[in-house]
Amino acid sequence: MSTDPSTDPSTAKGLSDREHLAVLGYEGSFERSMSLWANFALGFTYLSPLVGVYSLFALSMSTGGPPSIFWIVIVGAGQLLVALVFGEVVSQYPIHGGIYPWTRRLWGRRYAWMAAWVYIWAMIVTITSVAEFGSGFLASLFNIAVTKEVTLGLSLVFLVVALGLNFSGTKMLARVARIGLAAELIGVIAVGLYLLIFQRKQEFGVFFDSMGVQGDGSYLTAFGGAALAGLFLFYGFEACGDVAEEVSTPARRIPRAMMMTILVGGVSALFSFGGYVMAAPNLQAIVDGEDIDPIPAILTAALGDVGAKIFLIVALTAFLSCVLSLQAAASRLLFSFARDGMIPGHAWLARVSPRSKVPTNALIVACTIPVILCVTIYLGPEQLLAQITAFAVLGIYVAFQSVVLASLRQRIKGWRPAGPFSLGGAGFAINILALGYGVFAMFLLARPGSSGVFVNDWIVLIGLGIVLGTGLLYLFIASPDRKSDAPSGDAIEIAAALRRR
């Protein structure tokens, strides 16, 4: 009898991976070489608490003070509800592409088009942003002065190196993801614990002290403004499902990998954020907004020059792994879109390399558009990076909630998820709570600013409006949904078919 879990007929409620995929209407064309830990590593390095905390620590502290750390707990709990809903969906539909096939099978072709259109642009902009932020670390490692030319050149290095690694195949992706996971855990948990235990300069009560950040206003307003500390951090777990057809026993393993990503990522972020707060030599200057890039000074004071350099190497590994995971997830979404004939050039984009078993053409696109965006940022005004990335987080949350809403709609119609991972009778309540959390999160992200400059205050909604508008125009002019005969809106029927098998 075969001991290969991908062919064992008992791995997914009596179905092998190939049989499960056949029930969904597809043939397997990928190598199922990704284990549970590799799948978790992919999601974790995409979520990347090191990148998230480093990018937003100063902003969070100057907006909400030390109590802004509690947003990590609040958002982590909310996103865990979303991940539980995703777990049931991917357990029934372990298909490449994540958001797109899930919304297609739960609702319909047009709905899936818009959800995927928003999601893919949010992912591509996120790839660009991570490469741009990572360039600063690379420049610091070699003591290179950061100029627009240097930022452009080093950002392109990140993108091209990640593309080359992705071209090597799923095994290389899994290997680098595991290395990135180790780097994240060292750079986040180990360094955070060291700062908390050996370099503590504040008492733990500081996390309940606003340190006057609210001025003469209400602290509740200031605390709400710091929500991005958590909202920016907790996505990436969905990438575990983007590569479903490269994971053995995905219907069981991917939901577990998603939960692990949220839980380990949340704990890591808490240690990291807390460590920086406790070890800050001049915390008040950070809260007052006088120190806009405090982490290098904190690390140098705590670890010394050599220790800070070692941390830079660890951080660079995490940034590269994050870009790699983002490219992989975006390419699988493009492949899934193309396989169903829903995007221009679908025949070209749906090709899978017979040697490496990865969608190389989709990978090229997932690298080329960020390259174009990097050049545009170089040629544009100073604030262009912030402006084009402003909608990315909101776009991710809109795409997430499109799945949650479609799932709830199907439950109301009588759908009972048929995958090995099941929430049972609690599924309906968890689905409602996940949707409520998502609406709350999107409200926090979409609120206009108060600077008095229209573009700056409304840039998040402007960016989302542009993406939604262009997507709707293409949808109604080109009608890609009419050119695709792939199955859709079949959650109840597929659940019944899986139960019969």
Automatic annotation (TrEMBL):
Task: Name a Pfam family for this protein.
Answer: AA_permease_2
Q: Transmembrane ranges?
A: 36-57, 69-90, 111-130, 150-167, 179-197, 217-237, 257-279, 310-337, 358-379, 385-408, 420-446, 458-477
Domain of life, source organism: Bacteria
| Compartments, record wording | Membrane
Q: InterPro entries of this UniProt entry?
A: AA/rel_permease1 (IPR002293)
Record key words, sorted: Membrane, Transmembrane, Transmembrane helix, Transport
**Gene3D superfamilies cross-referenced by the UniProt entry:** Amino acid/polyamine transporter I
**Membrane topology for this entry?**
Multi-pass membrane protein
Major subcellular site:
membrane
Q: Which PANTHER family match?
A: AMINO-ACID PERMEASE BAT1 (PTHR45649), OS04G0435100 PROTEIN (PTHR45649:SF26)
Name the chain's protein.
Answer: Amino acid permease
